[in-house]
Amino acid sequence: xxxxxxxxxxxxxxxxxxxxxxxxxxxxxxxxxxxxxxxxxxxxxxxxxxxxxxxxxxxxxxxxxxxxxxxxxxxxxxxxxxxxxxxxxxxxxxxxxxxxxxxxxxxxxxxxxxxxxxxxxxxxxxxxxxxxxxxxxxxxxxxxxxxxxxxxxxxxxxxxxxxxxxxxxxxxxxxxxxxxxxxxx
Length: 185
Hints:
Blueprint: H1 5-35, E1 41-46, H2 49-66, E2 67-71, E3 74-77, E4 84-89, E5 98-102, E6 107-113, E7 118-122, E8 127-131, E9 135-141, E10 147-153, E11 165-171
């Protein structure tokens, strides 16, 4: 028995719709992984005005306690591995300091925004997260690559958006650096 042409067309449409839905589901999973820093644990919560004041104090304390040197007038802040680090997005700025971290060591990065929605984007570290006003984001991560990386804002945040560039320096771990044998003289 031969199927009727209408029935074959209906089967084709059903298969096409099933493939389309499967593709949309896979696309949604890929998009979710891009927005939530793959390989990192991300938590979000509301931040109160009192907590925002404490957040700013935490930044000041971090910079005062962990500045190891300066690049021009900019402090380079090297918090110990396993510690809390802070970035406050505001007025086209990530803060007046450079973070220096260690490759492969864990950190808890706390992010919030003071003025408008921003997005933290550090492409080469696969670090990407949107930051809404009134929201505190904590990212538990271990930088996998050594180098000097730019922090960019991924959301247009005003006329000086293009100037919203910060820096993270990740120092190579001792385990990944090959030691040269001493030369005999």
